[in-house]
Design goal:
By secondary structure, the chain is α/β, with parallel strands linked by helices. It is built from 15 helices and 13 strands.
Amino acid sequence: MGGSIRTHNGHLKILHALASIDRRHGGPSRSVVGLCDALSRENGQIHLLTQIVDEDRALLDRDKLRDVHLHIIRTRSLLNYDICSYLRTKATIIDLMCEGHVQLLHGHGIWTPFNHNIISCAYRLKVPCIVSPRGMLEPWALAYKRWKKSVMWWLYQRRDLLRSTVFHATSEQEAKAIRMVGIKQPIAVIPNGVVAPKTHGCDARAANSSIKRILFLSRLHPKKGVLNLIEAWKSIGRSDWKLCIAGPGEAGHIADVLARVRSYRLNESVEIVGEVRDEAKWSLMRESDLLVLPTFSENFGLVVGEALACGVPVITTKGAPWKDLEAHKCGWWIDIGVEPLISALEEAMSLTDEERCEMGRRGRGLMENKYTWKAAAKKMEEVYKWMINGGDRPECVV
């Protein structure tokens, strides 16, 4: 697909670019860091270019980036146009190219001026470019703030996509969404990896079994379906179960969630704990009996994989690509909406502790066998080599 490969000590030289790797900004901030970390361990010279507004307040996984060359562009805004950061980004890419550090660009996300800059540089410098839309071409995502995206689509986004060499989807479902906007280029379907904790949750839950816990753990954003979850919870009314809502979010949507909880008088059975990180997050997950993600749209749904890795059964919607929940009998994969959510919750809550733990064990086995970062990095490396060297198309490319 390209010229002969040039490596340094046998290393692939890849530049990844993501608008933000601050963990408060959703799944890609964790999954891209996980991918870069795994690639650097698997014989890659990996560079990661990103933006920061306030470095002192940013939450970066620096431990996972110890073997990754990190390039930080300071900017006034992650989403809006900033000519100074735009020029610094371009200069950084050109310098890395001139110094022989980059064979291929891997851009994560679309729509922002930062993402536009990455693809434009790759096109002008004649560098192969793979783009991971990270769910931003899903139907729900396209409909959200549609008027603004329509303007960007015709200004630069459509042209950028057509200039990309290859696309990366984290599921077959996302690959179909990419095709629906007219993309003809090859698509590599490679799921994210998930780090499985050393211990799972059944023992922790047994020690605190008087009150059962259902956990929602994600960004509080309209697409995550939290309001649907509260509607369903109002109808169930179980005093022996509590709903815990955890995660950062947009101030306006958090206010909507709080107002809905108060108006339904659910304060006794619904706990809103805000953002949880690191070991506190894993402890909360392990001590929960069920995780619920009633999302409208996900390209992967990292929290689903994390819950399964903790041995926690999951309910999520068909807006997320998790049919494995049904295939491996470790959760419920339901239609979007309040009524299907009520039905799944009631069924999950009616099971015995041991039945839910058995589902959790099957889920943990699934994650250990299928969704590891080492496996994802190996497939991604095959795609990179194919893009640079040509030859037989990898099996994961459709």
